[in-house]
Amino acid sequence: MQVNFHKIATEITDRAIAAVDPYKLLIDQVALVRNRLTIKNIFSFDLDQFETIKLIGFGKGVAPMAAAMEEILDKRYSKGKIVVKYGHSLPLKKTEVFEASHPIPDANTLAATANILNFVDSLKEKDLVIVVISGGGSALFELLPRSIKLSDLDTLSRLLLASGANIGEINIIRKHISLVKGGRLAQKIAPANCICLILSDVIGDPVASISSGPTAPDPSTFDDAIEIVHRYKLESKIPKCILDYLQDGCDGKIPDTPKGNETLFERVHNIVVGNNRLALEKAKTVAEKHKLTTLLLTDRMEGEAREIAKFISAMIKSALRSGIPAASPGCVLMGGESIVKISGKGKGGRKQELALAVLDSMRDFDGPFYFSSIGTDGTDGPTDAAGAWIDHNSFRKAMSLNLNPNEYLEDNDAYHFFEKLGQLIKTGPTRTNVMDLAFFLI
Asked: Lowest CB count within 10 Å: 14, 102, 234, 400, which one?
C-alpha cells in the first residue's frame, strides 16, 4: 500500500488544531436560551439574577473565546477587556484587546493587567464576571509586589525556562510572587460571581495550574516554591528580592495563596472547555480515515525532550520490526509537553529539539517512517516555527548537506538544523494552545 506520509501528517496536524479552535469550542458548548446560560449541558446559570455582566481574559487563545461570548451573550454583554500575545488579537465589537509579551512579561503586561483589575474593581454580589483563560495566561496577566521589579521577573522567567523545570513547577513559583495568580484574582473579583471558561495547556487539566490558577484555590505553598528553587539550584542565581519575598512567605510574614476551604470559591465556577485530548481524538479520526492502524498512546507525555526521543525512536523501530505498538501502515499519537534543559547557545524549541533527538537516535536504522512534533499554539520556543518533521530520508539528506544532528543537538540549535534541511513546520499563530502533538507514521 502506497502511503503519502507527508500529506497525511499535514492533514492530521491541521485537523487536530482545528478541533481545539477556541471560538468553535465555546460556540459548541455554551448556549443562552432566554435567561439561562448553559455550559457543556451540565452547568446552568440564570442571568436574570445578575445586575451587570463583565468579561475579562488572558492567554494566547482568548480573542476567539471573547468573540464567541460576544455572539452568545449578544445584548446581555456590554463590555470586556482581554490581553493576548503580540500578533494574536482579533477585531472585536465589545471587547477591548491589549497585546503583551510572551513567554517573558513586559511593561505592557503590567499595564494591561492593571487596566483589567480596575475594570472588575468594587463589584457586588449581584455582579457576574466571565473569565476566559488559555495557555500563555501566566506570562500575559501579572501584578507584582512592590519589592519585585519587572526586570527581576524577567531574570527569574529566563532562568526557570532554561532550568529544566516543568510548567507545574514554574507556575508554583510564579503564583507565589504574584498578586493575581493562585486564586488571588478570585479574591479581587469577590464578592461577585465568577464563571471561568478554560482552555487547558497543562497535563491532566488541573485548574490550579492552568495559567497559574488565578481563579482556583491553590494547593501549593511558599515552602513548595522555595523547595523548587533549591531543587534546580537557582538560589544563587535568582534576584535576591525574589528569594527574600519567598522566604518571608515561608516565615509567615506574607499571607499564602487562598486555599480550597475559603468561602469566596463558593461563587467561582472553573470549567475546562478544551484540552489536548480533543486534538488527539480528532487526529486519531483522521488517521483512521486513511486506513492506518492507529494508537492514541497518551495525552500525558512529559519529561526531557531527549529522553522522550529515546522512547519514541524505540517504538518506531519496534513497530517496523514487529508491529508493536502498531502495525504498518500505522500511526501512533502522543500529546503532552516536553522540557529542554538549555546548555548550548543555539536557537530552537522543545518540539524541534524532540524531532532532532529522534532523528539522532534513528541514524543507524533503515526503514520507512515519518515523525512530526509540533506545538498547537504555532510557536515553539523563541522561533517562528511550530515544530519540525523528519522521515527515513532526513539523516541521509543531512549528511549530504554536512549537517551533523548530534552537533546541533548539543548546541540546542534545532531551528537552524531544520531550517537548512527544509523541514520546519510553520503554521503561524493558531490562537489556541493545548500543549503539544507528536506522532509517527509507518
From this structure: 400
CB 333 within 8 A of CB 296: yes
User: pTM of the entire structure?
Assistant: 0.94
Ranges of beta strands (E only) in 305-360 are 330-339
- In 3D, which of 25, 29, 53 has the Cα closest to residue 43? 29
Contact between 238 and 198 (Cβ < 8 Å) = no
- Look up cell 548530534; give the residue: 406
Query: DSSP letters along 213-237, please?
Result: -TTS-----HHHHHHHHHHTT-TTT
Domain boundaries, the chain: 5-11+277-441, 22-143+178-220+257-274
Segment-wise mean pLDDT, segments of 10 residues, the chain, 442 residues: 88 99 98 97 97 98 98 94 97 98 94 98 97 96 97 94 88 96 98 98 95 97 98 97 98 97 96 98 98 98 97 98 97 97 96 99 93 98 97 97 98 99 97 98 98
Tell me which DSSP letter residue 314 carries: H
8 with 441: CB under 8 angstroms? yes
For domain 5-11+277-441, give the fold.
glycerate kinase, domain 1 (3.40.1480)
Neighbours of 403 (CB within 10 A): 17
> For residue 288, which of 332, 323, 334 has the smallest C-alpha distance?
332
Confidence (pLDDT) at 180: 98
Q: Report how far residue 389's alpha carbon sits from residue 308's, in angstroms, rounded to the nearest whole number.
A: 16
Residue for grid cell 522555595? 226
Return d(Cα 308, Cα 311) in angstroms, integer: 5
Buried-exposed string 39-59: b where 16+ CB fall within 10 A, e elsewhere: beeeeebeeeebeebbbbbbb
Written out in words, the top-level CATH class of the domain with range 22-143+178-220+257-274 is alpha beta
**Secondary structure (DSSP) of 394-438:** HHHHHHHTT--HHHHHHTT-HHHHHHHHT-EE-----S----EEE
Query: What is the phi-psi region of residue 97: left when phi exceeds 0, alpha when psi lies from -120 to 50, beta otherwise?
Result: beta
Residue 315 amino acid letter:
M
Say whether 341 sits in a helix, a strand or coil: coil
Contacts of 112 (CB under 8 A, 6+ apart): 81, 83, 98, 99, 100, 140, 141
**pLDDT at res. 400:** 98
349 and 422 Cβ atoms separated by less than 8 Å: no
Nearest to 332 by CA among 348, 361, 311, 303: 311
d(Cα 213, Cα 15) in Å, to the nearest integer? 29
